[in-house]
Write a structure and sequence with these properties.
Blueprint lengths: L2 H30 L5 H22 L5 H39 L2 E4 L10 E9 L4 E7 L2 E3 L24 H6 L4 E2 L6 E5 L5 E8 L5 H22 L7 E2 L6 E11 L7 E5 L6 H24 L1 H11 L10 H4 L15 E7 L26 E9 L13 E6 L2 E7 L6 E7 L6 E3 L12 E9 L2
Parallel strand pairs: 1-6, 5-14
Antiparallel strand pairs: 2-3, 2-14, 3-4, 6-7, 7-15, 8-9, 9-10, 9-11, 11-17, 12-15, 12-17, 13-14, 13-16
Length: 455
């Protein structure tokens, strides 16, 4: 045969071999349902179409039955890949959106380009030369009145009282603090100029993070029971807080000095936990904080590791116990958050009709607590539809250090949203913010607050 004919035969043979090789590959894909990237699928589509055109060109001359079968396989292969391409596009877009939503946190830099709050100076023990009373407060360079919370003037043992300020709405406004609420997303990180970081989480029905969604669903499951238990706590269990103001229900593990010749501290369970109502309440709290441990490990791994290392030598003294925290988790997760005690506070007119404002906390730091980041939980209760809402004077002012510095204002009472913050209450001044008188609130709403700490 001529050279031209030999070249034509070689091309025909290569084409036919390539056609059957790709046909076998298509059949393998159908059988194994191989998962490929969208780029690979799009490449296969182009390859199938190119060879299909070649086969149709051959068909104008003559094709044996097996090659007609190959054309049908290729046609089915193209349709399958095009369908898979659309599916992969949708799945990839959804996955990228979820990844961007769940892994990216919104960051507020205090003293950055957008936020310039004024600095506070507050020393509750400094003597004011003008009034000859303890407590000096300044916003910027301007001296302001440090209005004292009534509960903090009550004596406590031999030390006497240590009055703390609950400043007016005017003083709060002077600070020009950035507001942190759920509008920025479900995770917000605040960075102070001294390097300190706080992280705030908002779990609700629109949460994209699967773990945050589980926290919300857990609260939905137990919210009515939490409300019932809070309303039925024996009145004698509430303790007046002479340091920060208000009343709280304590629970957890305390420590007393060892016997003679021993320097160890012996743990014991607070008597309040022996009451059935309190026991049930903290069992529910254990399941929720166990889920929050998963969120912190995901978004704040350094803080989670610090928590484990700080309490690692006394796992038996963690309250609620690690086992009770894991009851709300999957078997493969097995994380917990470490603390020794938790204080429950109730804020709202429904449970405190005569002394609502006295239940707010003065600006203070928790001297004597373990100086690491801990969780403060805020749960919405009451309201017309039972999903809570804004409660007067419950925003939380969080400062840079013990004597103030710069700050942010956290909206803690949000309808149908569980708010929790990771902060160092032993090193950071904090307390409630008084609202202006013209603010509107639902008087049927109230807030249950679980404050964790270590001793």
């Amino acid at each position: 045969p001529s050279k031209k004919m030999r070249c034509s035969r070689r091309r025909s043979t290569r084409r036919r071999n390539n056609i059957w090789r790709i046909k076998d590959h298509v059949q393998t894909m159908f059988a194994a349902k191989t998962t490929m990237s969208i780029q690979v699928i799009q490449h296969r589509i182009l390859m199938f179409k190119r060879h299909l055109i070649q086969m149709h060109h051959h068909n104008q001359i003559s094709l044996p039955p097996k090659e007609i079968e190959a054309i049908q396989s290729f046609t089915a292969g193209i349709k399958w890949c095009e369908d898979q391409s659309d599916v992969f596009k949708l799945e990839n877009q959804t996955a990228k959106l979820q990844e961007r939503t769940t892994r990216t946190t919104y960051t507020i830099k205090i003293n950055g380009a957008r936020h310039h709050p004024k600095e506070l100076y507050y020393d509750p023990d400094e003597l004011d030369p003008d009034t000859n009373k303890k407590g000096v407060m300044k916003v910027g360079n301007e001296k302001v009145e440090a209005q004292i919370h009534d509960y903090t003037t009550r004596s406590k043992g031999q030390e006497g009282s240590r009055p703390r300020s609950f400043p007016s709405a005017g003083v709060v406004g002077m600070l020009n603090a950035p507001l942190v609420d759920a509008t920025n997303g479900e995770v917000t990180r605040i960075q102070f100029k001294n390097g300190r970081k706080n992280t705030v989480f908002f779990a609700n029905g629109e949460s994209q993070c699967p773990i945050m969604k589980r926290i919300y669903e857990s609260f939905q499951q137990y919210g009515s029971l939490i409300e019932y238990l809070c309303k039925n706590i024996p009145s004698e269990l509430w303790i007046v807080d002479s340091l920060a103001g208000g009343k709280y229900l304590p629970g957890g593990v305390c420590f007393r000095n060892g016997t003679k010749g021993s320097n160890s501290k012996l743990p014991f369970l607070r008597k309040e936990c022996c009451h059935n109502v309190v026991k049930q309440l903290f069992e529910i709290y254990a399941k929720i904080i166990g889920l929050e441990a998963l969120v912190i490990e995901k978004y704040c791994p350094d803080e989670y590791l610090e928590n484990l290392q700080t309490y690692g030598d006394a796992v038996d003294c963690i309250f609620p116990s690690p086992a009770s925290q894991r009851e709300g988790q999957q078997v493969s997760e097995g994380l917990h958050w470490s603390l020794h005690q938790v204080a429950l506070r109730i804020m709202g007119k429904e449970l405190n009709p005569k002394s609502e404002r006295s239940q707010r906390t003065a600006w203070h730091y928790d001297q004597g607590d373990v100086a690491t980041n801990q969780l403060l939980n805020f749960m919405p209760m009451g309201g017309e539809d039972g999903m809570g809402g804004r409660v007067a004077d419950t925003d939380l002012m969080v400062f840079e250090h013990k004597n103030g510095g710069q700050c942010f204002r956290l909206r803690t009472s949000i309808k149908d949203t569980i708010v929790f913050i990771l902060m160092n209450s032993a090193e950071q001044l904090h307390g409630n913010a008084q609202d202006e008188d013209d603010c509107e609130f639902d008087n049927d709403c109230w807030s249950a607050r679980f404050i964790a700490f270590g001793r």
